[in-house]
């Protein structure tokens, strides 16, 4: 299995986007709960 630079960039990008989405969703839920 050989990963190209583009594959690793897409993987890191999607992972970062996922973490960002989780963070914003948790903050939104906290604001809604208050």
Largest sheet: none
Between the first and last Cα atoms, what is the distance in angstroms? 48 Å
In total, how many beta strands?
0
- Shape descriptor reads rod-shaped
Helix content: over 70%
Structural class: mainly alpha
Mean pLDDT equals 91
- What radius of gyration results from the CA coordinates? 15 Å
DSSP summary: helix tally? 1
Low-confidence runs: none
DSSP strand (E) fraction?
Answer: under 5%
The arrangement of helices and strands along the chain is H
Would you kindly provide a brief summary of this structure?
Helices cover 85% and strands 0% of the residues. The protein has 1 helix and no strands.
């Amino acid at each position: 299995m050989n990963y190209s630079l583009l594959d690793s960039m897409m993987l890191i990008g999607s992972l970062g986007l996922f973490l960002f989405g989780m963070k914003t969703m948790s903050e939104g839920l906290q604001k809604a709960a208050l």
